[in-house]
Design goal:
Helix content is 10%, strand content 44%. The protein is mostly beta strands. The protein has a 9-stranded mixed beta sheet with strand order 1-2-11-8-13-6-5-16-17, covered by helices on one side. A 3-stranded antiparallel beta sheet has the order 7-14-15, with no helix packed on it. A 3-stranded antiparallel beta sheet has the order 10-9-12, with no helix packed on it. β3 and β4 form a beta hairpin.
Length: 248
Amino acid sequence: MPILASEGSGIFLLKSVGWPYYRHRFSRRPWAGDSCGVIMAEIAETHPLRTSVADFVEGLRTLESDVITQAKVLEYLSQVQLAYDALASYVFWSDSYYTRNLIYRDELFEVMTLCWRAEQKTPVHTHNGQLGWMSVVQGEVLTHQYRYVRCSNPENQNVIGLDCLGGSHHVDLERLNTVACADDGKVVTVDKLQTIHQIENADKARAGCVSLHIYSKPIDSCVAFDLRSQRCGRRELRYHSKMGVLAS
């Protein structure tokens, strides 16, 4: 059965052992010591690469009946994985910027593909203190992780519903490490402790990179950092496409 192996802070490798030719349907089952129950898998004889987007989303929605934690979603991702072919309807490219393509959204989950041409990258940015999970279905991306040290207006972090108002100068961030994420089952996470990073496509292959992102809760804006000027500001986020249709 699938096992979950830690690869260090924020990095997890998902391995499949014993039964690689199954898809999993999820239902709530009681668990000893847990009156609320946990998500258990019922095995159906279907190859995991044939998991549909609809099945994947339905499994995520099942998790909404309980408290959503980083570990629970990681466990789910170890059992249900989407292949590139399943996501083809949500793959859109731009030569000018990486694209954000919405697959599903409700009050608790946001699911999207990000499509990267060679050398496209995000700014260094936050995630509003939300949880996030990223895997790659084609190519490879690099994730540079940072830690906040200080800024001119630390009081801007004392705000409800956001991680920070932004607008500070003399911002000091410490770069912690860089992690490669490819189509090998690895999942990179962000959480309330490690929330600042930058993603870039360092792969020069013409086919480009496609990554799958899940956030809880959905993120409509973030704080973006300009490391050269040592300034930061809040940035609204937009979709390049929604549900397989280009956004107007």
